[in-house]
Amino acid sequence: MSESTILTYTEIDREAWSRLVQTSRTGTWFQSPEAYELFASLPEMFTPFAFGVVGKPESDSGQIIEATLRGVCVGYVTKEKSRLRQFFTRRAIILGGPCLAEDATDEEVTALLSTLNAQLSTLNTPIYIEIRNFNDYSRWRGAIEAAGFSYQPHLNFHVDCTDKQKMWERLSDNRKRQIRKGDTPPAPLSEGRERVSEQDVREWYGILQELYRTKVKTPLLPVEFFVQAYKQGVGQFLLIRHEGKIIGGSMVVKSSDAVYEWYECGMNAAYKEQYPSVMATWAGMQYAHEQGCARYDMMGAGVPGVPYGVRDFKSEFGGTLVEHGRWLYVAKLWLYAIGKAGVEMLKNKIINLIRL
Q1: Could you say which architecture CATH assigns to the domain 157-321?
Q2: By C-alpha distance, which of 156, 205, 189, 194 is closest to 286?
Q3: Per-residue pLDDT tens for 211-227?
Q4: pLDDT in tens, 250-266
Q5: For domain 4-154+325-351, which CATH number applies: 3.30.1490.100, 3.40.366.10, 3.40.630.30, 3.40.50.970?
C-alpha cells in the first residue's frame, strides 16, 4: 500500500515540479512554477495556490522506495475591487487541469484535490472551484469525483502543428482565402520579428476590452495583468498591424510541446479586408510550428449542443474537436446560484442594448 503526502507551494521541490510539468502528458504551462509566480506577482488580482502530492510507492519486492512528486495543482482565487462583487463572484480557477504523473494512483489524485478543497476555505472561501481541462482526465474520473467535483462537458480544438504544409492544407478554403488576402502576420523570430512594446500591449488590450464589453460579456482581467505577463516574458504577443496601427493580435503562452491561445481579438468590423482575428490565430499556429511544438491549443470552444460563434470561427483552422470538459466543485450553492443568475441577466441586458 502506498502513502501520499500533500505539500504546499514552499514545500514542493522546484526542480521536481518543473520536470513533472515537462514530462507529463497532462503538463501545461499553467501548472508550472512560472505560472504561480505570475499570479503571485499580482496580489491585488489573485490569491495563488499550489499543492503537490508525494507518493511513496512500493517496489516489486514490497520495499518502500524513494518518495516522488506525483502531481501538482496550481491555480488562483480571483479578487475584485468591489467588496459586493467579490462577495458574489469570488472563485478559484485551475487552468489546464492538474499535472499528474503518468501512473498517478486514484488515491493520490483524490488526496491532492480533497486537500485543495479543504485548504481553499482559508483563501477568501471561493464560491466554487473550476478546473478547465486541456487534456484527457477520463482515467482519473472516479478519483476526481471522489474529491467532490462534478464533470461539466466542454469542447476545445487542438491543432496539429508538426507539419507546416499539412497545417496549411487542413485550413478551410475560406481561411486560406482570408490569409492570402489579409495583412502579413508577425514574422518568425528567426527573421527578426518586430519588437512589441508595453504601449503596444496596452493598445491591443483596448481592442480586447471592447470585445469583452460588447460580445464576450464576462469579466476581463485588468490591463496590469497583461503588462506584467509582458514584462516577465511569460506572454508572447503576436500583434497584427495595418498601416502602422495595431488592429488585432493574440497573447499566447508556451509549454514544452504546446502553445496556448490565451487571449485573441481583432477589429474585424472596422478592418473587414484585413481579417485581424484570422491572421492572429494563424500567426499563433505558425509560432507553435516555429517553436517545435506539436499542438496549438485554442483553449475552449463552448458547451456541446449550444450554438457558439467562437466555435464556428475556430472550426475552420483544421483542428481536432475534443471534449476534455471541466470539473466543478461548488462550495456555496446559494451564492453560486445567485452569481450565475446575475451573469445571465447582465448578458441579456447587454444583448438587448445592442439590439436597440
Answers
A1: 3-Layer(aba) Sandwich (3.40)
A2: 189
A3: 999 999 888 999 999 99
A4: 999 999 999 999 999 99
A5: 3.40.630.30
